[in-house]
Write the structure tokens for this entry.
Amino acid sequence: MADTNKSNLPDIDDIQKTLEKQIAELRKEITKINKSISARGAEMLDDASEQASDFYDTAAARASRTAQQLRSQAQAVSEVARENPGTTTAVVGVIGLLGFLAGLAIGQSMNDTQRRWY
């Protein structure tokens, strides 16, 4: 009876070899998966880097054009001011006077005690 039970049961060495074989196959699969993930990560990093570079180049070009336009407009205003100093003085004086009057009006409205909410 002991012989029949022993022959029906798989040998422990066979089970161990089978498990070791499965573990080796799993390790190979994990290595393949890690390589695939690493390659995909490198591709994604390259894509992100390329997009960031494109965005930077576009932003730099736009900033350069904007700065050039501001310089040309400032130069045009400066030339007009040099050609017409009297008009420039009058415009700056009127703007200053309007600012002074606005300040007075705001100051008076703040000092008016009858209009306070309390």
Summary: The chain has three helices and no strands. Helices lie at 2-8, 12-83, 85-111. The two ends are 107 Å apart (CA to CA). The mean pLDDT is 86.
